[in-house]
Amino acid sequence: MKNIKRIGFLLVLAMIFSAATQQVYAEKTYVIGEHMAPVTKPDPASTYVGSEKCKICHSDKYNDWRTSGHPYKLNTPAEAQAFNSPAIPAPEGYTYNDFYLVIGGWTWKARFLDNNGYIITKTGPGKDINGSNQYLLATKKWADYSAGQTKKFDCGNCHTTGYSLTGSQDNKPGIVGTWEEKSVGCEACHGPGSVHVAKGGGKGVGILKNDSAALCGACHTRGADDTKIMSKDGFIEHHEQYPEFLNSPHKELSCVSCHDPHKGTRVGQTNPTAGASIKAQCSTCHPKQNNDFTGSTMQKAGIKCTDCHMPAAGKSAVGDAASFKGDVKTHIFKINTDINAKFFDDTGKFANGYVTLDRACLNCHNDKDKAWAGQYAKGIHKFVKAETTATQSETPVSTSVSTQKAPGFELLFAIGALLIVALARRR
Ligand code: HEC
Ligand code: HEC
Ligand code: HEC
Ligand code: HEC
Ligand code: HEC
Ligand code: HEC
Ligand code: HEC
Ligand code: HEC
């Protein structure tokens, strides 16, 4: 993995000498995922000051950011206990006094660093049992991560701000490199801000505003080759959003076309609102499909665009491959309705770049198969289950309506709907 990254790094270096790829290089110099500190400083004299300094003048952005997952990537034991209620338990054999830092624990899972900075991989009363060292938030269970190995924390490039490969943070032997601030702070995306702060702020004054997808792609990728969607054990690997996006019909857009980068999308410990960061909904840009879908059988059953177009085809912590249910939503978006289309290539190591009907449909319709889904997939937006075509083996639909609309049907339906609403209100 690291070797691949180094090769990638050399390739990027080679590109510098090619005038034709100046643009690519300009984006790639800011790649945190390549073990490189951001070279693109807003000002040659800029140094890191920390997110707390930005709060003074940008309290709105600061408060939004505090509710998102980015500030909770690396936490002191006290912080990890404070934002999780009840606190995540310590692995067997340990107490919170035995941790230098807790990795994550905001959304999917938590891993723990011992007081020498190594990732804890042995647990149990004698700290000699391999594994059970990774806590899964969704199931409240323990899982194995690099069980029993001596595992240094070399993750600072994406989990910290102002990362440098030199030295070891707090002189901890298990830590590779040093950082200016834990977690993904303001300056991870805006560059070091000392000059901006010293000059009293201002647009374009000693600060970067980069709205390219490549900025997010520095961390939301596994780094080897951004055109390939890395996969494992029947799932897309976690933090592959950038490669997925580059394979999607949205590749001409940016992450921030849909996301407010300061707000969280996941419901996490500090963000109660699902999708809070989504500033442009699917319906904003696809009004036709939204119109078609409105009133369909599934829309009435509460199904959303994202249920089919962004199924959880990726896995970070918990997944059931047999029923196509992971825990990271895909950013591939495009659905291939061919029932023979395969989600992965023959090696299983890469996804093909489209959502297949098993992922799009069968994680809900788990008693059906792709051939069944294929009958309906084309034109599914407008699909209204017709009473006349319903077979006895199918469960009756309470919202079923006739596709052969008789004159006056709309009026009758509207009156019926009003009656239902009125009845529901009285309950
Ligand atoms: C002393 C007050 C002050 C502090 C401290 C401050 N800023 Fe600003 N910042 C400003 C002002 C004023 C603007 C201009 C706002 C405008 O014109 O809309 C600005 C603009 C920005 C912009 C937009 C730049 C652009 O070109 O559009 C960013 C990004 C930004 N600040 C980030 C930060 C970060 C990150 C920090 C902490 C390292 C920080 N600021 C600290 C006052 C401050
Ligand atoms: C994950 C990356 C990321 C982090 C972390 C981040 N920002 Fe931003 N910020 C952006 C991007 C990208 C934009 C440009 C947004 C756009 O174009 O829609 C932006 C825009 C801004 C702006 C300009 C807003 C405007 O209306 O023009 C300010 C000010 C700002 N950020 C301040 C902050 C502060 C303060 C923090 C920390 C509390 C912070 N940002 C953390 C990515 C980030
Ligand atoms: C190339 C960037 C990158 C590197 C390197 C990286 N991570 Fe991450 N990690 C992410 C991103 C992005 C996410 C969240 C998005 C996702 O998982 O799809 C994440 C999520 C996590 C989470 C879940 C956080 C939570 O709150 O649920 C844990 C735990 C974690 N990483 C641990 C590690 C450890 C340990 C290492 C080093 C061995 C590491 N990561 C290396 C980018 C990275
Ligand atoms: C310096 C590395 C880094 C950069 C740059 C970065 N991210 Fe992240 N991102 C992470 C990590 C690590 C996590 C896992 C945080 C967690 O859940 O604990 C994460 C989590 C997220 C999440 C899920 C958690 C939540 O708050 O809902 C979203 C959404 C997200 N990032 C969007 C973005 C966008 C959009 C950008 C670009 C504007 C971006 N990220 C840039 C590292 C990064
Ligand atoms: C900011 C605008 C924007 C938003 C928000 C947006 N899209 Fe798109 N979408 C586009 C553009 C632009 C294209 C490419 C042009 C096209 O094919 O219409 C596209 C293409 C697509 C395609 C492929 C179209 C085709 O003809 O094959 C799908 C599927 C899609 N989007 C689904 C979604 C879903 C689902 C959502 C919500 C999660 C969404 N989009 C949100 C702008 C947007
Ligand atoms: C029940 C699953 C499902 C839901 C829900 C759904 N779609 Fe689709 N969508 C599909 C399928 C399947 C296709 C492929 C159709 C084809 O190729 O004929 C598709 C195709 C599309 C396309 C490509 C262009 C087209 O019309 O074929 C866009 C854009 C799109 N959907 C947007 C949306 C939006 C926006 C929503 C929510 C308002 C939505 N979809 C809800 C399954 C769904
Ligand atoms: C077309 C709109 C769109 C674009 C472009 C987009 N996202 Fe998202 N993203 C979404 C939506 C919608 C969700 C799910 C919101 C929800 O769960 O309600 C999401 C969720 C996420 C999540 C959380 C995943 C999960 O399982 O909940 C991460 C991380 C993320 N996006 C990162 C990114 C990054 C990085 C990029 C750019 C490479 C990006 N997104 C581009 C619409 C978009
Ligand atoms: C998030 C869950 C979910 C997803 C994903 C989903 N559906 Fe549905 N679907 C439902 C629900 C709920 C109903 C309504 C059940 C009822 O009332 O009969 C339904 C109803 C249907 C019906 C009519 C009822 C029947 O069984 O004949 C068809 C056909 C259908 N879906 C096809 C699809 C196809 C094709 C896809 C993928 C493109 C898909 N669905 C994706 C949940 C889902």
From TrEMBL:
Organism lineage string: Archaea, Methanobacteriati, Methanobacteriota, Stenosarchaea group, Methanomicrobia
Boundaries of every Cytochrome c-552/4 domain copy: 147-191
Database matches in PANTHER family: C-TYPE POLYHEME CYTOCHROME OMCC, DISSIMILATORY SULFITE REDUCTASE SIRA
InterPro entries in UniProt: Cyt_c-552/4, Multihaem_cyt_sf, Multiheme_Cytochr_ET, Paired_CXXCH_1
Domain Doubled CXXCH motif: 249-289
Matches recorded under Gene3D superfamilies: Flavocytochrome C3, Chain A (1.10.1130.10)
Natural source organism: Candidatus Methanoperedens nitratireducens
UniProt-recorded name of the protein: Doubled CXXCH motif-containing protein
Molecular-function annotations in GO: oxidoreductase activity
Keyword annotations from UniProtKB, A to Z: Signal
